[in-house]
Amino acid sequence: MAVHEQPHRSSGFRLPSFRRNRSASTSAESAEPLAHTVRAYAFASLRLLTGFVFLWAFLDKTFGLGYATQSGRGWIDGGSPAKGFLGSVAAGPMESTFHSWAGDAWADWLFMLGLLGIGVALITGVALRLTALAGAVMMALMWIAEWPPAKHLPDGSPSMSTNPFVDYHLVYAVVLVALAAASAGDALGLGRLWAGLPFVGRNRWLR
């Protein structure tokens, strides 16, 4: 009588496939540098766009380019860049203080140098920590001048505030801090070159 071999059946037990795990690990490792690059360029793009906002405000207020500042009323024409904003403050705990500052030369110079310095620093990608500090202080003062918590002005008219806390000044302040924390000047900027300078290396707050 012939004896037929039974077909081999798997017991259901298999060793784990290290090849598949190794392949997945390799894919994750290769994707990590790409994600880092995308993140770096995303922050760099945000830095450049934010820098242009500040730099454009400086140029428009200086030369009267016809946008927020009418032609012939620029800083070089004798206009006061901060007078209109400070003089129009209509609510908040510093209303009278801002009114007293409106038109003062020191306020104009400080405001314009702030716009120029923050704009240039963001465009070039240098001194972002100092820029974040200066920019946050400027935005905080402008937030107080706008005073979003107010529902009504002293004359009873609506303030037109759309949010009692968050407005674009606060958003800009957070963006500046985030750019500094992320070293956003290293991509599409001079951040690495700036950080390599000896005096910056000795004073990390200048980074």
Structural descriptors:
single chain; 207 residues; mainly alpha; 0% strand
Please tell me about this protein's structure:
By secondary structure, the protein is mainly alpha-helical. It has helices at 18-63, 83-87, 95-101, 105-124, 128-146, 168-181, 191-195, 198-202. Helix 1 (18-63) runs antiparallel to helix 4 (105-124), helix 1 packs across helix 6 (168-181) and helix 4 crosses helix 5 (128-146). The radius of gyration is 28 Å and the shape is globular. The model has no long low-confidence stretch (mean pLDDT 90).
In short:
The protein has 207 residues and is mostly helical.
Q: Which helices and strands occur, and which strands form pairs?
A:
Blueprint (H helix, E strand, L loop, with lengths): L17 H46 L19 H5 L7 H7 L3 H20 L3 H19 L21 H14 L9 H5 L2 H5 L5
Helix pairs in contact: 1-4, 1-6, 4-5, 5-6
* DSSP summary, beta strand count: 0
Mean pLDDT level: 90
The helicity comes to 55-70%
Major sheet attributes: none
The share of residues in extended strands comes to under 5%
Shape: globular
Cα-atom radius of gyration: 28 Å
What structural category arises from helix and sheet content? mainly alpha
Order of helices and strands: HHHHHHHH
Number of helical segments with 4 or more residues: 8
From the N-terminal CA to the C-terminal CA, the straight-line distance is 90 Å
Low-pLDDT ranges? none
